[in-house]
Design brief:
heterodimer; A: 332 residues; mainly alpha; two-stranded antiparallel ribbon; 5 strands; B: 152 residues; four-stranded mixed beta sheet; two-stranded parallel sheet; 6 strands
Chain lengths: 332, 152
C-alpha cells in the first residue's frame, strides 16, 4: 500500500543499514531491537534442556589448530629433543586407523589411489611399557634396597597403573595430540599413547634421558603416598616375623604401652613391639588387635625405609650428573 | 561475597611441577583481533613488534594469531591442566599486552580463587606428629578427664 511504499523508500533514514556487496545484491542489517530474538533464545534454551549440552569436540576439530606446531611445542616444552617422525607415529592409535579407513570407505574414496600410509604405535607402546617397568624396578630397588620383590612389584604396578599414567598424560597435554577413534580419549588408549611416547623418547634420545623423564613425571607421583596404600598386606605381623628371622633378630613381643578411654566409645591403645626388650615400633589403634597390626606396619615401614621422615628422593637436574666429568678433565 | 560463598582451593602445583623439571604450563595462546577497529590498535602494534620475540623466547607455547572481523580483541590462553583463560584487551597498549603475556606465561593453569593457606607440604612432620602421649612418662598414668575443683 502507499504507506508501505513510503516506508520502503525511507529505509535509509531508519536504523537499518543497507550494504551494497555487488551491483544487484544488497545485504541489510537491522540494528534496532530484534523482535525474533526472545523467541529464538527461548527455543534454543528449551532444546538445550531437552537434549543436554552438545558432545565435547576434540581440540583438533576446534578452530586454531596446527598439528606440526603443536608437536614441536610439546617436544620443546618438556625440554626433550624428540625425533618428530617417531613422536607423530607414537600418537597414532590403531583405533584411529580403523575409524579413518571406515570413514574413507563410507565417502567412497578408492583405497588403491589414496592409501592411508600411517603406522600405528603398537610397537613403540610395547617397547615403552617394557622400558618403564624395568626402569621403575631398578629405581625402586636402588631407593629401597631392603624392600622385598612383592613390595617393589606393587609400587611399580601402582605407578604404571591406568589411573596414575592417565592423570599424568592428561596434565601433560597428550590428550590433545592423540589420534584415537573416540573422543573423549578412553583410558587404555591414553595409557598406550603415553607408553608409545616413552618408547619414541628412548629411541630418539637414549635410555638415560628417558629414565630422567620417567623420574621427573612418574616417580614424583609417589610424593605423599604411604607404602601400604599401594601394597595391600593382609598379615603384616607374619611378614615382620619373616623379616626379623632373616636378619637373626629375636621375634617381636607385643606389649601394651598406653591406653586411654578403655570403657568409652573411642578407646585408644598404643601397642609396642619389643625384640629382646628393645622397642622396635609402636602403633595406635581402637582395639588391642588393631593397635598390634598398626605397630607391625610401622615396624615394616621402618625396616623398608619408607617412613615419613626418610631422606627425600633425588630429583636434581641432569647437569649435576655431567659436571664431575668436566671437573676431572680440567684437573688433568 | 564472603569466602564461604565463593570457591576456594589449597595451594598446589600441577603434577609436582618444578620438583623434577620445570614445565611451562601454558600450552597455547591465541590472539583474536580485528584488522580495522580502533579497539585492537594495541594488539596490532604488539603483533607487529613483540609477538615474534615472545614466540622465540617460549618455544613450548604455540602462538596463534587470528584476525576476525567485528570481534572484541581478546587473548585466549590454554593451560596443560585443561583450563582456558580469556582476557579482553580492548584499547590496551602494546606494553600492557606484553606484560599480560608474561603474566599468563608464568601462571599455572589452576583457578584464580581464594587460596586457603599460603603453604603446603607433603611431609608435615619430621620427628613425628605430636599426640598427647608424646614425651609423657608412663609413670604418670592414663589420660583421664580432669576432676572439676569447684563443685557447685
Amino acid at each position: 500500500m502507499a504507506s508501505g511504499y513510503i516506508l520502503n523508500r525511507g529505509a535509509l533514514t531508519l536504523k537499518s543499514h543497507c550494504q551494497r556487496v555487488f551491483r544487484n545484491v544488497s545485504l541489510s542489517q537491522v540494528r534496532e531491537k530484534k523482535r525474533w530474538m526472545k523467541a529464538y533464545t527461548h527455543i534454543m534454551a528449551k532444546k538445550l534442556k531437552l537434549e543436554g549440552p552438545p558432545p565435547p569436540k576434540p581440540r583438533s576439530q576446534q578452530p586454531l589448530w596446527d598439528y606440526h606446531a603443536e608437536v614441536q611445542a610439546f617436544s620443546n616444552r618438556l625440554h626433550e629433543s624428540f625425533s618428530l617422525e617417531l613422536l607423530k607415529i607414537a600418537f597414532i592409535n590403531p583405533c584411529y586407523l580403523q575409524v579413518e579407513q571406515e570413514r574413507r570407505k563410507g565417502l567412497g574414496i578408492n583405497s588403491e589411489t589414496t592409501a592411508l600410509l600411517l603406522k600405528d604405535n603398537m610397537q613403540l607402546s610395547a617397547k615403552g611399557a617394557d622400558f618403564t617397568k624395568s626402569f621403575l624396578n631398578d629405581w625402586c630397588r636402588a631407593s629401597f634396597p631392603s624392600l622385598p620383590s612383592k613390595g617393589v612389584e606393587s609400587i611399580v604396578g601402582h605407578l604404571t597403573s591406568s589411573a596414575v599414567v592417565t592423570y599424568v598424560a592428561r596434565n601433560l597435554g597428550i590428550e590433545d595430540l592423540t589420534m584415537s577413534g573416540e573422543f573423549p580419549v578412553p583410558d587404555d588408549v591414553l595409557h598406550s599413547t603415553f607408553m608409545a611416547m616413552i618408547g619414541a623418547l628412548q629411541e630418539s634420545s637414549g635410555a638415560e634421558r628417558a629414565g630422567f623423564f620417567l623420574r621427573d613425571f612418574l616417580v614424583t607421583q609417589l610424593l605423599g603416598k604411604d607404602l601400604f596404600d599401594m601394597w595391600t598386606v593382609v598379615n603384616p605381623m607374619g611378614i615382620l616375623v619373616e623379616e626379623l628371622t632373616k636378619r637373626n633378630v629375636p621375634l617381636p613381643e607385643p606389649r601394651l604401652i598406653r591406653s586411654a578411654g578403655a570403657s568409652t566409645v573411642l578407646p585408644l591403645y598404643f601397642v609396642g613391639l619389643y625384640s629382646d626388650k628393645k622397642l622396635l615400633a609402636q602403633g595406635p589403634g581402637e582395639t588391642l588387635l588393631a593397635a598390634e597390626e598398626e605397630a607391625a606396619r610401622v615396624a615394616l615401614r621402618k625396616i623398608y625405609g619408607f617412613s615419613e621422615n626418610r631422606r627425600p628422593f633425588d630429583f636434581s637436574p641432569q647437569q649435576q650428573h655431567q659436571q664431575p666429568l668436566f671437573q676431572s678433565v680440567s684437573s688433568n | 561475597m564472603t569466602s564461604r560463598g565463593t570457591p576456594s582451593r589449597f595451594l598446589r602445583s600441577v603434577l609436582q611441577n618444578g620438583l623434577g623439571r620445570y614445565v611451562c604450563q601454558l600450552k597455547r595462546i591465541s590472539i583474536i583481533f580485528s584488522k580495522t577497529h580502533p579497539s585492537s590498535l594495541g594488539v596490532r602494534e604488539y603483533i607487529e613488534e613483540g609477538v615474534v620475540d615472545y614466540a622465540k623466547k617460549n618455544p613450548g607455547t604455540v602462538v596463534y594469531v587470528s584476525p576476525q572481523t567485528s570481534t572484541v580483541p581478546k587473548i585466549v590462553a590454554e593451560y596443560l591442566n585443561g583450563n582456558v583463560r580469556e582476557e579482553i584487551v580492548i584499547r590496551k597498549t602494546p606494553q600492557q599486552i606484553s606484560e599480560l603475556f608474561t603474566k599468563l606465561t608464568s601462571q599455572s593453569g589452576l583457578d584464580i580463587i581464594r587460596i586457603r593457606k599460603p603453604n603446603h607440604t607433603d611431609s608435615p612432620s619430621i620427628q613425628g606428629q605430636w599426640h598427647p602421649f608424646t614425651n609423657r612418662p608412663p609413670s604418670i598414668g592414663p589420660i583421664k578427664p580432669q576432676k572439676q575443683l569447684n563443685q557447685s
